Amino acid sequence: MSILRDIPRKMRVLVIGAGGMLGTDLGRAAEAAGHEVVALDRAALDVTDGEAVETAVADARPDAVFNCAAWTDVDGAEESELEALRINGDGARNVAVAATAAGAAVVLPSTDYVFDGTADRPYVESDPTAPISAYGRTKLAGERETAAANPRHFVVRTSWLFGLAGRNFVETMLGLADRGEVTVVSDQVGCPTYTPHLAEGLLQLAITEQYGVHHMSASGHVSWHGFAQAIFEEAGVECQVRPTTTAELARPAPRPSWSVLDTEWPDAVRLPEWRDGLRAYLASRTTTVSA
C-alpha cells in the first residue's frame, strides 16, 4: 500500500544515513517516485565532520537533504550522552548548515522521546517538550540545531519504527517465539510505525513549503505488550505474551509511558494504521525469505 500521491515536482534527493532502516526505505521510495537519489551511508559520510558534510552536500546539489544519520541506541545514549550528542546534535547542525549553503531544504526525522509521557491525550507539535532520557535530549538538541541553521526545515517526530533493513521489535519477537512465552511491558503506549510508510510520508511532505515541526507516525496506538500480541496473531505463531512493567524491566534509560503522536497541521500527511504496517512488514518479510 503506497500513500504517495501523484507528485508534480521531481527532486534531486540526498539521503544521509542511507544504510539504516529508515534511510534504506527512503532511498527506495524516492527512486520509486521518480526522484533522482544520492545515497550516502555512514561509511561514506560522517555527519560529525562538518567539512566533509559541506563538501558532500555541495557535490550532490540536492533540492532536499534527508538526514537519517542518528544515534538510535536509547540505552547506550544513557551511558554515552556526549557521544550521542555529537551525532544527534552536532551532526544535525552540520547537515542543516550544509543544506542551507547549497540552497536545499532539510528533513530531520526525530522522536516521540522528546516528550515526558505524562500527557492524557496525543501529543501535538505545540506541546512543550521535556525529554526524560539522554536519547530524547540529544534528539531535541538536533531539532533545535536544525531549525536554527536552516529556515527551510522539516523536523518530523515519529515513533517505534520497524522495517526490513534493521533491527526492530517485530523481528525480536518473532526470534523469541520458539520459547513459547515472552514478557513485554504493558505500561508504555505509542504508535508502531512501518518505515516504508514513513519514507513515503516524508517525501510527500518535502515537496511542500510547510516548514517547521511535524508529527508523523502510524495511525492508532497500542502498548508494547499489545503490539507483541498482534505480531504473533498476524504471523500465525503460537506464543504467550506475559505483561510486565517498565519498573520491573529496569532498563538503563527511562521511557515515556505515553508517547502517542497527533498533528495540528490542517493538511497533514497521514500514515496508515499501525496494524496495516505490521501486515505489510510480515508480507514483505515472507517474500524476502522465500526469495
The CATH topology assignment is Rossmann fold
Number of helices: 10
Q: Tell me the major beta sheet.
A: 6 strands, parallel
Structural class: alpha/beta
Q: Give the helices and strands as they follow along the chain.
A: EHEHEHHEHEEHEEEHEEHEHH
Lateral strand order in the biggest sheet: 2-1-3-4-5-10
Instruction: Provide the domain count.
Output: 1
Question: What is the tally of beta strands?
Answer: 12
Supply Rg. Answer: 18 Å
What is the 3D form? Answer: globular
What separation lies between the terminal Cα atoms?
20 Å
SSE topology sketch:
Blueprint: E1 12-16, H1 21-32, E2 36-40, H2 50-60, E3 64-67, H3 74-79, H4 81-101, E4 105-111, H5 134-149, E5 153-158, E6 161-162, H6 169-176, E7 181-185, E8 189-190, E9 193-194, H7 195-206, E10 212-215, E11 222-223, H8 224-235, E12 240-244, H9 246-249, H10 274-290
Parallel strand pairs: 1-2, 1-3, 3-4, 4-5, 5-10, 6-9, 7-12
Antiparallel strand pairs: 8-11
Helix pairs in contact: 1-7, 2-4, 4-5, 8-10
Write a compact overview of the structure shown.
The protein has 291 residues and is α/β, with parallel strands linked by helices.
Account of the protein in words:
The protein has helices at residues 21-32, 50-60, 74-79, 81-101, 134-149, 169-176, 195-206, 224-235, 246-249, 274-290, and strands at 12-16, 36-40, 64-67, 105-111, 153-158, 161-162, 181-185, 189-190, 193-194, 212-215, 222-223, 240-244. The longest helix has 21 residues, at 81-101. With 291 residues, it is an alpha/beta fold. It contains 10 helices and 12 strands. The chain has a single domain (12-290), classed as Rossmann fold. The strands form 4 sheets. It has a 6-stranded parallel β-sheet with strand order 2-1-3-4-5-10, sandwiched between helices. It has a two-stranded parallel ribbon with strand order 6-9. Strands 7-12 form a two-stranded parallel ribbon.
